[in-house]
Amino acid sequence: MIVCETERLIIRHFELSDAKYILAQLNEASFIKSIADKQVRSLEDAQNYLIKGPIASYQKFGFGLNIILLKQNGMPIGMCGLVTRSELEHPDIGYAFLPNYWGKGYATEASKAVLDDAVTKHKLKTILGVTFPENQSSNSLLSRIGFNQTGSVELYGSINNLYMYQTNS
């Protein structure tokens, strides 16, 4: 299901056929360092990740992480969406892109579109952002798209910067 589109991107729900992309993304050194090692090492692991993660989230909340595709050729380049964690009071925005697609504005473009969808379609008033203090690109991306740093939070044994996005409507 297509969630939304931007000038350059198609943002849609993950499908089991996206397991090859998931396997590549979750084993990128940058993903493991900046997000987590999800222990996804095979296509079967990737399908299980999709079933228990994004697909389960769509069924329970109506939203979750989405795959990001280039409009021009359908190439999967990243993921972006909302994650609901029991440790946090509100959903948080998450994103990861393959290194070849960094520095091209795709993360900002996708994040803005996902935020707009969260506010308009899902009527969310508060969305969080969580990132390691040393991850300067993620910290500046969150600030750039309207999040304000509100403090820090411990998640999975690490201290993270905590950001908040609130709508006025």
Description:
α1 (19-26) crosses α3. It contains five helices and eight strands; from the N terminus they run ββαααβββαβαββ. It is globular and about 40 Å long. The protein has 169 residues and is of the alpha+beta class. The chain is 34% helix and 31% strand. Strands 1-2-3-4-5-6-8-7 form an eight-stranded mixed β-sheet. It has helices spanning 19-26, 29-34, 43-61, 106-120, 136-144, and strands at 2-5, 9-13, 65-70, 76-83, 92-97, 126-131, 148-155, 158-166. The mean pLDDT is 96. The protein starts with a strand and ends with a strand. β1 and β2 (9-13) form a beta hairpin.
How would a crystallographer describe the biggest sheet? 8 strands, mixed
Average pLDDT reading = 96
Q: How many strand segments?
A: 8
Poorly predicted segments: none
Q: Note the overall shape.
A: globular
What is the topology, as strand order, of the major beta sheet? 1-2-3-4-5-6-8-7
Number of helices in the DSSP assignment? 5
Query: What proportion of the residues form beta strands (DSSP E)?
Result: 25-35%
| End-to-end separation | 27 Å
Return the structural class: alpha+beta
Gyration radius, rounded: 15 Å
Helicity range of the residues? 25-40%
Order of helices and strands: EEHHHEEEHEHEE
What labels describe this entry?
169 residues, single chain, 5 helices, eight-stranded mixed β-sheet, alpha+beta
Summarize this, please?
The chain has 169 residues and is an alpha+beta fold.
